[in-house]
Structures are given as C-alpha cells and as structure tokens.
Amino acid sequence: HKVDVDKFGTGVAKTLSEFYEAVVREQKSYLTLQDNHLERVVNLVRISLRIRDNDHKLRELRIASQSTSAGGLRIRDQPLAVVLKIPEHGQWQEAIEKCFEEKLRIPSRVQKMC
User: Does this model's pTM top 0.85?
Assistant: First the structure.
C-alpha cells in the first residue's frame, strides 16, 4: 500500500509501535481501504460538560494537553472525549459512564443520581 513508515513518530504522529498497540492490541481503531488508500478509523465520543459559574459565565471542561509516551506534551484544547474500542461500538452511554469513573472519579451510582 506504499505506506511511508518514516513518517511514523515524527511531530505528533504515533510511532509504528504505538500505532500497532492502538490498532491491534487495544482495538481503539481499525483500518479500511478507501480509494486504494489505507485509512485509520477511530470511533470517538466528544463530551461537552458545561456549567454556569457564580458570575453566570458559561464554563466548559476541556483537555488542555496530553502526555506522550516519549515524555513530550501534545497540546489539545478539546472537549473531553472517549475512544470507543471495537467491542464497545454502539455502547456510547456505557463508555461515557466508564470515562467519568476513570478520569473524573465520579462513581456510577453518583452519575445515575444526576
């Protein structure tokens, strides 16, 4: 498929090892063939969590940055997101619940009370 493997691991791109880990082992994405080109597909759920503060200003939870495996920092400035692994496709509600438990430490029982 004429994939230039020298581009893996440059800039913010994943190394070939990280790519393999995400696609094969963690099943966070899969590959499709589109117009004779390989395309990586990631099923992502973006979460817009907003609140009004005491001054009635609208605030949104955003991810400022992310640590890379090489010890670097990847700037994000994006809403919270959950990657749906292949076995989780179609189960976005459960994935969000798990995300809130793991990332925000909000137990499932507390989430259900809201």
Answer: no
